[in-house]
Design brief:
By secondary structure, the protein is α+β, with helices and mostly antiparallel strands. The protein contains 12 helices and 8 strands. The strands form 2 sheets. It has a 4-stranded mixed beta sheet, covered by helices on one side. The protein has a 4-stranded antiparallel beta sheet with strand order 2-3-7-6, with no helix packed on it.
């Protein structure tokens, strides 16, 4: 059974990540929010330090690099706290500092998580040490990943990719792009596979960088793939199109990465709540946990409501990560964590801005920035609406054709 306390062996890691957030991320958070598309050079040394920690420890450093289920097997009845949980705990602390800067850290992208989740040992060795972004969304395939139109055709010993990808986080800075494409449109979801494309591949053309509401420290790129050739070995997972298995192979990536995005939302939510508590206290408003909310001020009652949502998000996120560490199917829990944490992050950060009034909207504090950053955490890796649809399908035992 899951123990909801932080494991003792991970407390140093969480403290280390919090120190990074406090001493590195927070001081430059506003700087790179205002200097959109400017690369935070301060992160280079930090990324190298985390790489060293990951190599020298079986539980990793403070970063957010990928997680791998096959390495987390355990004996029946034995609880294991592995790389999924340690990564989630590190992400929470780092995003307490700044989620945009976390997404800008070399070799800590969601593409790295995708590679770590499903790559072969040969692929891990070949692409190890490189920064990977993930390219899923297309102009006509956003929330419905199964509608992907980018094609991959086998030509001898190479796949030829053609299509368009938008909203690729860290796409311009990364060394690799994990591109989702279909081997056969007529086969539907089962034919969707992911391919590793080198950023300097001549067939991968950068169209533009997006100007965004939040996570402005992170670059968001749009690409066109024109006869983009990659070796057969660049395909992640099994190249066979299995209609019976359907989308399961590709969706395994989401089962690992959605808890990571939920952890990002949890970190931002906690940051907003802590700052709001400080502002309320300085204004003479105290939150009393021994008194019913209805007997306290409206501000205190609202704060308690938001804090309870935060706690629920935090616990759902830990559960989804723990299940992955213990080789338990967690697709439902991963979507629950992502849905709850994403919605809570948006609601709480906006609620904190409201409670703090003019202070919440000013640039002397980071509350307004966190409110802007929060929205993407409810969108990428599957929107709020898509998560609720996935949850409903699993609870009701319906497939995608039966419940749309």
């Amino acid at each position: 059974m899951i123990n909801l306390e932080i494991p003792k062996k991970y407390k140093p890691l969480a403290q280390q990540a919090n120190q990074v957030a406090t001493e590195v991320f927070r001081p430059i958070s506003r700087k790179y929010d205002e200097a959109e598309h400017a690369y935070p050079k301060e992160l280079d040394m930090l990324a190298s330090l985390i790489d060293g920690m990951n190599e020298g420890s079986d539980m990793g450093g403070a970063g957010a690099a990928g997680v791998r289920r096959s390495a987390n097997g355990s004996d029946p009845g034995e609880n294991r706290n592995g790389s999924n949980l340690s990564t989630v705990l590190g992400i929470i602390e780092l995003c307490w500092g700044d989620v945009g800067l976390l997404l800008s850290m070399p070799r800590q992208g969601l593409g790295n998580s995708a590679i770590a989740s499903v790559a072969t040992e040969e692929q891990l060795e070949h692409y190890g040490g490189k920064w990977a972004a993930m390219a899923i969304t297309e102009p006509e395939a956003g929330s419905d990943s199964a509608a992907i139109r980018t094609t991959a055709e086998l030509d001898g010993d190479e796949y030829v990719l053609n299509g368009e990808k938008i909203f690729v986080t860290s796409g311009d800075r990364a060394d690799l792009i994990v591109v989702w494409a279909t081997l056969d449109r007529s086969a539907g979801r089962a034919a969707i596979k992911s391919f590793i494309v080198e950023r300097d591949n001549p067939g991968l053309k950068l169209d533009r960088l997006e100007h965004k509401l939040g996570i402005r420290a992170s670059d968001t790129a749009n690409f066109t793939l024109q006869d983009c050739r990659v070796p057969k070995e660049a395909l992640l997972g099994n190249p066979d199109v299995n209609v019976e298995k359907g989308f399961a192979g590709a969706m395994q990536t989401f089962d690992n990465t959605r808890p990571l995005v939920a952890a990002m939302a949890v970190g931002v939510t906690r940051a907003a709540l802590e700052e709001t508590r400080r502002q309320l206290s300085s204004a003479g408003v105290e939150v009393d946990y021994d008194t019913p909310a209805l007997s306290q001020s409206a501000a205190a009652a609202r704060f308690l409501e938001m804090e309870s949502d935060y706690e629920a998000s935090y616990l759902l996120t830990l559960q989804a990560a723990w299940m992955a560490d213990n080789s338990k199917p967690n697709s439902l829990q991963a979507s629950m964590a992502k849905a709850k944490a994403g919605r809570t992050c948006v609601d709480v950060t906006l609620g904190c801005v409201e409670l703090c009034g003019a202070v919440g909207l000013g640039e002397t504090e980071l509350l307004e920035k966190w409110a802007r950053d929060a929205k993407i955490l409810d969108i990428f890796e599957g929107t709020q609406q898509i998560q609720l649809l996935i949850i409903a399908r699993q609870l009701l035992g319906k497939n995608s054709s039966e419940l749309r």
